[in-house]
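Appendix B, Record 12. Input sequence as logged:
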Amino acid sequence: MVSPDVVLVGAAPSTVTLAPFQQVKQHLKDGLAAGRWAPGELMPSEAALVAQFGVSRMTVNRAIRELQAEGLVTRLQGVGTFAAALHRVASTLTIRDLHEEIVERGHQHHAVVHLQCEEKATAALALQLGLAPGARVFHSLIVHHENGVPLQCEDRYVNPACAPAYLQVDFTRTTPTHHLFEVTALWRAQYSIEAALPTAQEARLLGIAAEDPCLIVVRRTFTRSAAITIARLVQPGARYTLQGEFQP
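Logged structural output:
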């Protein structure tokens, strides 16, 4: 006899068994991954899930609590469950807004926009963004300052189809990262990180010598179906530290 706490999926001998709360959790997780609920959108109520799956409210509550612990949903008592911002959907992916990092340190952030325009994609750039050579792209070049000291040179290209209002945004008041979080459905990202020398232009914008080593991050982000942006982020090695935490 099958335990009432276990649901059998399929009939093959190698079939995976899911407890009822896991079945509810996976259903909601799959829906979030597929973009069924937009960031901040109200998701099905506990009562609706109880009726749909024929399980107890306690079972549904456990599934939602686990999703909340993973950062996939937010809950407001008496209101309901909401889809979390999509840049938090994957626990293996953390993209921080530099403005938030600086403010959390109790410091002042300000940005100087050196370039914000439309250009034609070179063949190499078009390949990176999945566009046709010569297609239009948005290009921004911004230097972020912490307490008046240049901290990061951000050279970014954006796929216009993903962020059509990008050129109208005032990046002295918000950051490209924050804007793209708001208007795109971030699905995955690719990184490369290296210690290298800046270009002559980067050295000038950052107020450092051409031989000063920098931490250089090149990052591409994607929706499920398209590349959103590619950014080259250059930080002077003497002004930037990578920090992390490990707990066994």
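Residues 107 and 167 are 27 Å apart (CA to CA).
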